[in-house]
Design brief:
Elements lengths: L5 E2 L23 E10 L2 E11 L4 E5 L6 H8 L7 E8 L9 E2 L5 H7 L4 E4 L3 H4 L6 H13 L3 H14 L5 H4 L9 H12 L6 E5 L7 H18 L2 E6 L2 H7 L2 E6 L2 E7 H6 L4 H7 L22 E13 L9 E14 L4 E5 L6 H8 L6 E6 L2 E2 L4 H10 E4 L3 H4 L6 H12 L5 H14 L20 H13 L5 E5 L7 H18 L2 E6 L2 H7 L2 E6 L2 E7 H6 L4 H8 L3
Parallel strand pairs: 1-11, 4-9, 4-10, 7-8, 8-9, 14-19, 14-20, 17-18, 18-19
Antiparallel strand pairs: 2-3, 2-5, 5-6, 10-11, 12-13, 12-15, 15-16, 20-21
């Protein structure tokens, strides 16, 4: 594929509305990057890229994992350890009398004065970016004291105000909370509050919504949009989410393998993408290619998975002396009922904490539960021996293939492990033949990957690892596969390939899927029926078209609207 960049011509000065710009930058620019390259040893990962940002502009940098997006942003503030950075990154500031400063050549002391105050950054994962030993208020106040010269009392009050500005409820109380005491959305808001503490002129937002649920993504996006207007700052948004780009950015740059291959106005690039990689990204939305089976209409219709009155609880400590003698109970799933017919996909959608994964674990017989839950007409028993036959009937593909595959086992050992339990009479050669057949079925062959069977998971990409996980599930010939967020850890183009693979396997084998996801687009592509979960309860269920096209519950409408 050619990496020749496609650049659409438009005057940068016209992209930033004067009403949203603070001050006046030299030549209408806030940041002008020329010939930026980043290398680690002899390997160059960012190749001679050029771009500029105007005051008040919203620019998106788009690409898949490993394309160089985050390295590009971090290199502007020289935060990449052991990297060789060359080129020019002229920062003009926003005042007419400010000197032009090359971020890549000024002293560390001068750059330290710019970091956080003039240019701030929102990092991708707030749980790892926030210090677990300090309250979020202390971390925000530290920035204000160091950069703005505020007293401790002033910084504390300003931290409360910043948390309030980002929409965190009860900011007077939350300012004293630690990161682990906040939800994912609240942690991300705290990160934004910290980044905006000094009212920077440029905000680098590295995948600020990736770890969030779909409705929270919309809220964070709206928040950034309103704060960007309020403070008149420019935003460089780093993302792989094309819906986010459409909704937020004015201009977009597409990055592939360290090269900017195309850039221009969002509307123009999305309407008529010129580069083949851009075309592939835009065309990566999941496509529906499943057998449209009629919904079960009679009580005697065969079902592979059936639940009624399903309830799952977790023990919780009680406060005070009562906790010495007894435990409380947190209800994770309450009174759930559903059926899964042969050859169909039941989609389970909801936000984090809604009970989706708990429902999946119960279906797999991995959690104790109350109520009725049957697999192929048989209930889970209390002993491992009695459940062994059911384990062959229902298998699972987990969310993150890197953590779900043992790094100490070869591909042959990983895929063939189930046969040791469910087909122990097979010889070593017979077992190897079945492993090769299962891998071939998911598109992995010895021709593509010499020495395939003896390789380890780290030698494969994310999409290839997920194919190995699918082969591991298929090899025992199950009737039901539980898919727990099977594509959320994958790039959009790889996600589409894995979904197409799952659809093909369903058509050829007549498999039934219990699909757990928060992605409405994945549900539209895969599911025949849908259940919507919130706070442990099923708030809506029914055929796909009925639930998603004519949602009856307000929560379902919120989820659907957040994907548009």
């Amino acid at each position: 594929m050619s990496s020749t960049p496609t650049v659409r011509s438009e005057p940068v000065e016209d992209l930033a509305s004067p009403s949203t710009c603070s001050g006046r930058a030299v030549n209408g620019l806030l940041l002008d990057v020329k010939n930026l390259s980043v290398s680690f040893g002899d390997k160059e990962v960012v190749h001679d890229i050029n771009f500029s940002i105007a005051p008040g502009e919203k620019l998106a940098l788009v690409g898949e994992s490993g394309s160089g997006k985050t390295i590009t942003a971090l290199s502007l503030l020289r935060l990449v350890q052991d990297a060789k950075i060359t080129g020019v990154a002229n920062y003009f500031g926003s005042q007419p009398n400010e000197d032009v400063r090359d971020l890549l050549s000024i002293s560390e002391r001068s750059l330290r004065a710019i970091r956080g105050q003039d240019i701030a950054m929102i990092f991708q994962e707030p749980m790892t970016a926030l210090n677990p030993l300090f309250t979020v208020g202390d971390q925000i106040a530290e920035v204000l004291e160091l950069k703005m010269g505020m007293s401790s009392a002033q910084a504390h009050q300003q931290a409360i105000q910043l948390l309030a500005d980002t929409g965190i409820p009860e900011p007077e109380r939350r300012v004293n909370a630690f990161a682990h005491q906040l939800s994912g959305g609240q942690r991300q808001r705290a990160m934004i509050a910290m980044a905006l503490a000094c009212q920077p002129k440029l905000l680098l937002a590295d995948e600020p919504t990736t770890a969030l649920d779909v409705s929270l993504r919309g809220q964070i996006l709206d928040l950034l949009d309103s704060l960007q207007t309020k403070y008149g700052m420019a935003v460089l948004m780093i993302t792989h989410d094309l819906n986010l780009v459409r909704r937020f950015a004015q201009r977009v740059m597409v990055m592939e393998n360290g090269h900017i291959v195309e850039q221009g106005l969002v509307a123009e690039v999305f309407a008529k993408p010129q580069h083949s990689y851009t075309q592939r990204l835009i065309d990566s939305k999941p496509v529906r290619d499943v057998l449209e089976l009629p919904a079960p209409t009679h009580s005697d219709t065969p079902t592979l998975l059936q639940a009624h009155g399903l309830r799952v609880t977790y023990p919780t400590p009680l406060p005070g002396w009562r906790g010495w003698f007894s435990k409380g109970a947190f209800v994770a799933v309450q009174d759930a009922a559903f059926t899964l017919a042969p050859g169909q996909t039941l989609g389970v959608i909801g936000e984090s904490g809604s009970g989706k994964s708990t429902l999946a674990l119960a279906a797999l017989g991995l959690l104790p539960f109350q109520g009725e839950l049957k697999v192929a007409g048989q209930a889970w028993g209390v002993s491992q021996l009695s459940n062994r036959a059911l384990r062959k009937t229902v298998q699972v593909v987990f969310q993150d293939p890197f953590s779900s595959l043992s790094p100490r086992l070869t591909v042959e050992e990983i895929v063939g492990e189930g046969l040791l339990v469910h087909a122990p009479t097979l010889s070593t050669l017979e077992r190897q033949v079945r492993v090769i057949r299962a891998l071939d079925e998911v598109g992995l062959t010895e021709l593509q990957f010499p020495g395939l069977l003896q390789r380890y998971p780290h030698e494969f990409s994310g999409g290839q690892r997920q194919r190995i996980a699918i082969a591991r599930a298929l090899i025992v010939e199950p009737q039901v596969i539980v898919l727990d967020e099977p594509t959320s850890a994958l790039d959009v183009t790889i996600q589409k390939q894995v979904l197409q693979l799952l659809q093909r396997l369903q058509r050829e084998r007549g498999l039934s899927y219990l699909l757990i996801t928060h992605d409405v687009d994945v549900i539209r592509a895969m599911a025949h029926a849908v259940i919507v979960m919130k706070d442990g309860e099923i708030v809506e269920s029914g055929p796909l078209a009925q639930v998603l096209d004519f949602p009856a519950h307000a929560y379902t409408r919120t989820l659907v609207a957040a994907t548009l």
